[in-house]
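RECORD TYPE: inverse folding
INPUT: structure tokens
STRUCTURE:
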């Protein structure tokens, strides 16, 4: 794991399949990206709220094995990055700036940015402020207009617990840290890491996000012209499928891909990983080759109706 400094704070990241600090372990099945010497085809993976870059490690390894330079990062307040207790340090806009700062640190002119939930909204901030740095985006489970109320209702109890119940949460964290990591599967540790950390910075993080803008306005989103693959799934009030469908309709070069559930990419990743890898191949293909391909399919009719009814 490597790191860089952003406004005096340490931001941790890991590279798979290319670059000076590339991973070459069996985790990428012994096949580092063949294009690594030239910087590869960078794809930056952004995690969800209060999670860490570990949530995207299996996907990063799979994408690296397919010839991409995959980079996972812990946004400020998450994982191995610094976790200040100042709420003003946390906002979606700052997270977008951290992604661009990571690209500057690594000397990457353009990348595909993939984000999940909080990471999806951070990727949209990059599109709003630095669209020239994006080769494309993969947006999984964005939180937009239709998910704001459910998100507030879901995370307010956690905010109260982390802020006013900090002593009790510290005891819970101590107990969680006593559970050996080797006893749990990968995603078991990803989830348990939610409570292994000191609760104070988590409360500051949630406060900072609650009182800032969650995503670029839809008028801005309609101007985003980079190729985009939008992933959504049904039966999730925090990440309503209507938000994913609406975003796919708003952006001129976006298409919608429906996942079976929140867990498909984590527990049965083959289909969605293949779709993401194919999208990356398409984005990085020479311009002449891209023009010869058929246009990507738009959202399914049902998804279009769901999004348009809430527009």
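DESIGNED SEQUENCE:
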């Amino acid at each position: 794991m490597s790191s860089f400094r952003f406004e005096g704070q340490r931001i941790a990241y890991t590279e798979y399949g290319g670059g000076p600090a590339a991973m070459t372990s069996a985790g990428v099945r012994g096949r580092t990206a063949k294009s690594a010497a030239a910087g590869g085809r960078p794809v930056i993976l952004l995690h969800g709220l209060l999670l860490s870059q570990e949530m995207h490690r299996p996907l990063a390894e799979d994408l690296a094995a397919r010839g991409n330079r995959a980079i996972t990062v812990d946004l400020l307040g998450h994982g191995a990055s610094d976790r200040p207790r100042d709420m003003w340090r946390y906002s979606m806009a700052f997270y977008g700036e951290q992604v661009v700062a990571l690209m500057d640190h690594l000397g990457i002119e353009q990348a595909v940015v993939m984000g999940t939930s909080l990471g999806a909204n951070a990727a949209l901030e990059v599109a709003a402020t630095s669209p020239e740095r994006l080769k494309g985006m993969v947006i999984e489970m964005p939180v937009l207009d239709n998910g704001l109320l459910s998100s507030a209702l879901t995370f307010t109890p956690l905010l109260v617990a982390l802020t006013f119940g900090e002593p009790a949460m510290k005891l819970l964290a101590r107990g969680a840290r006593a559970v050996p990591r080797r006893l749990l599967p990968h995603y078991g540790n990803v989830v348990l890491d939610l409570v292994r950390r000191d609760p104070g910075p988590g409360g500051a993080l949630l406060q900072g996000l609650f009182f800032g803008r969650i995503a670029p306005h839809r008028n801005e989103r309609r101007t985003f012209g980079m190729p985009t693959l939008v992933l959504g799934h049904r039966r999730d009030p925090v990440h309503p499928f209507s938000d994913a469908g609406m975003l796919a309709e708003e952006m001129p070069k976006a298409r919608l891909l429906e996942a079976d559930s929140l867990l498909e990419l984590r527990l049965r990743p083959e289909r969605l990983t293949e779709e993401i890898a194919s999208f990356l191949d398409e984005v990085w293909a020479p311009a002449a080759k891209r023009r010869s391909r058929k246009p990507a399919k738009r959202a399914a009719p049902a998804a279009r109706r769901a999004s348009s009814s809430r527009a």
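NOTES: DSSP finds 13 helices and nine strands in the chain.
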